[in-house]
Amino acid sequence: MAVQINPSILSADFARLADEAEAVKGADWLHVDVMDNHFVPNLTLGVPIVESLSRATDTPLDCHLMIEDPDRWAPQYVEAGAGSVTFHAEAAAAPVRLAREIRAKGARASMALKPATPIEPYEDLLPELDMLLIMTVEPGFGGQAFLDIMLPKIRRTRELISRHGLQMWLQVDGGVSAETIERCAEAGADVFVAGSAVYGTEDPAATVRALRAQAERAAAGAAWACGH
Ligand code: DX5
Ligand code: ZN
Prior knowledge:
The chain is α/β, with parallel strands linked by helices. The chain has helices spanning 17-22, 47-56, 70-79, 95-104, 151-163, 181-187, 196-199, 204-220; strands at 4-7, 30-35, 61-66, 84-88, 108-113, 131-135, 169-173, 191-194. Helix 6 links the parallel strand 7 (169-173) and strand 8. The N and C termini lie close together (7 Å). InterPro entries: Aldolase_TIM, Ribul_P_3_epim, Ribul_P_3_epim-like, RibuloseP-bd_barrel.
């Protein structure tokens, strides 16, 4: 069962982003949290930094847009070099049109759900997406405690993906660590974002390898992965 580990640079040193990308060599994607201080109460980075970072690393960029009006901004992140662009369901005015635009520009299209947003209203949209992101904390800050109450939503989403025969990825983001990653994998996640759990350690690349091994073991034993 192929799982992917995406370190979040929100917990990295923003003055040394190229080095911090190098420090997690072997990671599948670099998770880049874009916050506008409106959709979430925090401000991080935007298009110019994504553009520079994409030139500075070979690891593909997984941009998580926690911003208002993603319909306007998301395509610019594809042009800036992101390989995957995630917009929030709560912020998008026209999610189908936006997902199609992201794909047409050559990136993977992904949609995120805050903890209080159910997956069920979006069932028919799933074929338009390459990934669904289930937030396991309220978006805005790194280092928050994992919300166990999100596990049933992860399970229900995995069931929907299987029922529709889709190949899309299921990402979890927020509080993912050695303590929580196995529960996420057992519930059906296959892409894991980890910020503080990776960059807060002495050897971030070794931590990525350890998290991957844990998630692979848990996914291999999970009912949802049988037959994959
Ligand atoms: C939070 C961000 C996350 C954050 C996760 O709103 O979307 O990507 O970096 O940080 P940890 O892994 O520390 O919870
Ligand atoms: Zn994120």
